[in-house]
Amino acid sequence: MRSALVASAIVLVGSVGMGVSGAGLLVAPAAAAEAGPQPEAGRVYAGRAGSTPDLAKVGLVAIGAVSGSGTRVRIDLALDCKLTRSESLVDTVTSTIGADGTFRIRKRIGTILGGGGYSGEVRLRGSFVDATTARATIAYDISEDDDDGTVVGHCSVDGMPIALHGGPVEAGLGRIVASVPIRAGAAPSERSHGVVATSADAVYVALRSDLTAVRPEGSTLVRVDPTTNQEDRRSRLDQRIDAMVVIGDSLWGVDSSQGLVVRIDPETLRVRAVVQVTEPPSNRFDDLALWPQIAVQGDSLWLSATLNQELVRFDTTTGAVGARYPIGTSPKSIAAGAGSSLYVATEADDRSMRVLRVDSTTGEQQAETVPILNLRTVFATATDVFLYDASVSTPLSRLDPVSLAVVATATKSESAFPLVTAPPGFWGERDGTLVAFDPASMTIASKVRGLQVPSQDLGDPTVQFAAAGFNGIWVWDEGQTLLFRVGT
Questions:
Q1: What is the DSSP code string of 87-126?
Q2: How far is the first Cα of the chain from the last one, in angstroms, to the nearest whole number?
Q3: Alpha-carbon distance 309 to 285, whole Å?
Q4: Were 312 and a residue from 57, 91, 104, 303 both cysteine, which residue would form a disulfide, CB within 3.0 to 4.6 Å?
Q5: 222 and 229 Cβ atoms separated by less than 8 Å
Q6: Are 206 and 219 within 8 A, CB to CB?
Q7: Strands, E, within 329-480: which ranges?
Q8: What secondary structure letter does DSSP report for 414?
């Protein structure tokens, strides 16, 4: 068996594998250093050291400017070590290029495998020659131990030169405007999962546990100032916020596990009121009380009560439930369309799935689709309605907003899982990448390199990790624990 620290030589949208630990350290340039070249946003830099086999590969992509300093970058390291305990290990560092164009990064790595394991250190230092090229040296020293601590393997490289060359900037690429580091939440499980919302003057991120957590531990709510791209306040909440939106003078959140709607002061981040909308499940392993998604019509929040098989209208002007509409199947994803139309993804007891069109004033079910094998979401803009079926070769379909008949489809390579409405139609996820989708052509119009978003084809229900505002999209990257601002 060979162990290689394996990563893409370009942009990694996988993540850390096999228990990597440690942190990237940057030694800042002297204060008097002159300004130097910086990597260009949207350009992917890659290089390798050695010949056959490649002893080291490095991939770098710029992910946003840092006020008063250089450029924040994501660096993927791939080392070839002839160890026996493992076949692959992935390592990524998020750091900053100095204002003078130099960088110096040190990363400790380590993992335990069946009592043994390996550990060591990787060092990378260099500087940008211009916007398209960087020169660097890489060194690493990794040892492998068996169960009793005896060293059984070792690999090292000391100061091997490596050149990073930037490929052409991809046409139509969405650009990262800024990246905002946000400290982890109070609970250990709040280190990666984030829910995002925007108001007229702020961006909010709720750091919370996974939807499948047996004992939800509440959440940490953070407010970001979009004029400075910095965190300016945080607050600890007893409720786990799985979706949120600003309506009127309040930030409204949903705790889907407990069946709660939470009213929060958007300035102080203090909870004003907690309303029990539906009873929580008696067993933590049952379905969620509320689906972790909100549809908004005027002053009303529409919620899917999955266990009670009903739609719930919550009136934000009164702070109480205004209507309940039984629909006979378990409602999940929900979207508000034009007029009084609600679009609801449902799952029956026999596991069959459909999209319903429901009149929000009467609760009447006015249209439905044919059964869908793996319906992941329904999504609506001001003019269009979409569904995403992960089981077919054309996952994304555009529907007639009245009859719900399919009027257009996108191939798998051009499909995107819809997340947020913004020009040219909506922004969504494709293979872990944030993309912009054009409904007119039913194709992906642009994509963003340097951040990763959770794949939505499989796994747990999606949470609201992206929101539109301030001429851009704000996206929470779970792997890097950064809030990204992407220009549209």
A1: SEE-EEEEEE--TTSEEEEEEEEEEEETTEEEEEEEEEEE
A2: 47
A3: 18
A4: 303
A5: no
A6: yes
A7: 330-336, 341-347, 353-359, 365-368, 375-380, 385-389, 396-399, 406-410, 417-422, 425-430, 433-438, 443-447, 466-468, 472-477
A8: G
**How many Å apart are CA 7 and CA 61, to the nearest integer?**
14
- Are 389 and 413 spatial neighbours (Cβ–Cβ below 8 Å)? no
Instruction: Tell me how far apart the alpha carbons of residues 299 and 292 are, in angstroms, rounded to a whole number.
Output: 19
Q: Is residue 203 within 8 Å of residue 230, measured between CB atoms?
A: no
283: Cβ contacts below 8 Å, ≥ 6 apart: none
Express each pLDDT in 227-281 by its tens digit: 988 899 999 999 999 999 999 999 999 999 899 999 999 999 999 999 999 988 8
138 beta partners: 124, 160
Decide: 202 and 225 in contact? Cβ < 8 Å.
yes
Longest dimension (CA), the chain: 73
Q: Which two tokens stand for residue 204?
A: 């909010």
Coil, strand or helix: which one is 413?
Answer: helix
Per the CB < 8 A criterion, the answer to whether 301 and 317 are in contact is: no
Task: Tell me the CB-side half-sphere exposure of residue 320, using CA atoms within 13 A.
Answer: 2
Q: Which residues, 6+ apart, have CB-to-CB distance to 20 below 8 Å?
A: 89, 90, 91, 109, 110, 111
CA angle (15 as vertex; 43, 131 as ends), nearest 5: 15
Confirm if 382 and 296 have CB atoms less than 8 A apart: no
**Distances in Å between the alpha carbon of 478 and those of 55, 91, 401?**
30, 15, 34
290: helix, coil or strand?
Answer: strand
Question: Beta strands 3-5 and 88-89: pairing type?
Answer: parallel
Mean pLDDT of all residues in 89-97: 78
Would you give the DSSP letter of residue 318? Answer: T
Pairwise CA distance, residues 203 & 365, whole Å: 36
Could you read off the pLDDT of 217-239 as tens digits, one per residue? 789 999 999 998 889 999 999 99
Q: What is d(CA 439, CA 380) in angstroms, rounded to the nearest whole number? A: 11
* Long-range contacts from 146-155, C-beta under 8 angstroms, 24+ separation: 146/115, 146/116, 147/114, 147/115, 147/116, 152/84, 152/116, 153/3, 153/81, 153/82, 153/83, 153/84, 153/85, 153/118, 155/79, 155/81, 155/82, 155/83
Question: Contact at 8 Å (CB) between 229 and 202?
Answer: no
Residue 303 pairs in a beta bridge with 312
